């Protein structure tokens, strides 16, 4: 990039002064020009990275739906409880600032350091060579397609000019041919008149009259020869105009074929880009489906573990209640003969309460089984 940039800036027709150096280039310009050059260099040197962020659940879903729109030029990859942004450093900084704005408490990066949400600096996730390659190829292909279309448009403009020139030469050829024909006719008339005068001279008896007629005939023949030569010259000129028109017509045909070929090539490039994008979208959709399947499996596994733990707890509670009932039955039998009626009533109330608690545990266990 430095070599190509230096080759551009050292041109005589570039109005900005530069001084090439070892691995660098110094720009001697105004502050405004420096700002433009700096922005241009930043555009050339920026790279894309992947950064994963987390937000609160509702905001994460809404923001993901927004960023996933086709009209949004920044690529993202939805994740489980997170969103990965694929973009330049500036895009990452802007997205990070916006995330902290809309979700001060829940927003943060996803990394191994567990930095508190909204307080850590953005860290770069591993690069995505495939994504970067596709984006770079798509951009280069679109630039090439636009260049081809621009060249085709330029050829169309030249065709209009050449068509006008061809029409002009054709009109010139027609007019010149008409002039040549008219002058040739005049030459024929002069020759006919000269022959008539020569015939009159032969029949004239007076020598002076005969000489005068022959002189007139000679003058008319000379004029006829001059007219004929002029007519031939105009005919040659008309032929030249016709040949120029034919050459231009051939150029027009070649330019039309070239313009059509350029547009066909541009269309092929655009179709290739669409195929790349379709393949990328299919890959992203497949990844999203796999992620959903993983989340569903994880949810099912978590639910199964919870149900098993609940059943085990319910069964343990029921066994403990049954053991307490047996012990109390034995205790009741031993004390039946030694306690009064009031004590027996309190004891039975206690046993009934234990029975109800055990029944509730069994109901919970049955519901868990269902």
List keywords for this structure.
two-stranded antiparallel sheet, 4 domains, 7 helices, 4-stranded antiparallel beta sheet, Alpha-Beta Plaits
Give a concise summary.
By secondary structure, this protein is of the alpha+beta class. The protein is built from seven helices and six strands, in the order αββαβαββαβααα.
Fraction of residues in β-strands: 5-15%
What's the N-to-C terminus distance?
69 Å
**What's the SSE pattern?**
HEEHEHEEHEHHH
How does the overall form come out from the CA principal axes? elongated
Give average pLDDT, whole number: 72
* The number of domains: 4
Given helix and strand content, the structural type is: alpha+beta
State the helix count: 7
C-alpha Rg, in Å?
A: 50 Å
The total count of strands amounts to 6
Going across the biggest sheet, name each strand in turn.
4-5-3-6
Multimeric state: single chain
Helical proportion, percent range: over 70%
For the report, how would you describe the main beta sheet? Answer: 4 strands, antiparallel
Low-pLDDT sequence parts: 112-128, 361-370
């Amino acid at each position: 990039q430095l070599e190509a940039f230096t080759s551009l800036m050292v041109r005589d027709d570039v109005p900005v002064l530069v001084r090439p150096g070892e691995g660098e280039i110094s720009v001697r310009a105004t502050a405004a020009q420096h700002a433009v050059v700096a922005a241009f260099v930043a555009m050339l040197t920026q790279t894309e990275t992947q950064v994963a962020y987390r937000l609160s659940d509702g905001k994460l879903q809404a923001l993901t739906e927004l960023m996933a729109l086709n009209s949004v030029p920044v690529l993202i990859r939805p994740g489980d409880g997170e969103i990965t942004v694929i973009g330049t450093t500036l895009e990452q900084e802007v997205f990070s600032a916006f995330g902290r704005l809309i979700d001060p408490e829940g927003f943060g990066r996803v990394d191994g350091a567990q930095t508190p949400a909204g307080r850590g600096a953005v860290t770069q996730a591993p690069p995505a060579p495939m994504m970067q390659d596709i984006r770079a190829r798509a951009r280069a292909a679109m630039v090439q397609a636009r260049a081809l279309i621009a060249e085709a448009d330029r050829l169309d403009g030249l065709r209009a000019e050449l068509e006008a020139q061809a029409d002009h030469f054709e009109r010139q050829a027609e007019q010149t041919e008409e002039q040549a024909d008219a002058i040739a006719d005049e030459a024929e008339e002069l020759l006919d008149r000269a022959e008539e005068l020569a015939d009159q001279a032969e029949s004239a008896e007076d020598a002076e009259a005969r000489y005068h007629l022959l002189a007139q005939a000679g003058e008319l023949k000379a004029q006829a020869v001059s007219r004929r030569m002029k007519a031939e010259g105009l005919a040659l000129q008309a032929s030249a105009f016709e040949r120029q028109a034919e050459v231009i017509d051939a150029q027009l045909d070649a330019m039309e074929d070239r313009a059509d070929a350029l547009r066909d090539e541009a269309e092929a490039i655009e179709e290739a880009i669409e195929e790349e994008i379709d393949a990328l979208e299919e890959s992203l959709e497949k990844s999203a489906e796999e992620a959903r399947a993983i989340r569903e499996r994880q949810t099912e596994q978590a639910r199964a573990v919870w149900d098993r733990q609940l059943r085990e707890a319910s069964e343990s509670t029921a066994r403990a209640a049954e053991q307490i009932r047996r012990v109390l039955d034995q205790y009741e039998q031993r004390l039946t003969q030694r306690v009064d009626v009031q004590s027996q009533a309190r004891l039975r109330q206690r046993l009934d309460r234990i029975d109800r608690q055990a029944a509730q545990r069994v109901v919970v266990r049955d519901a868990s089984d269902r």
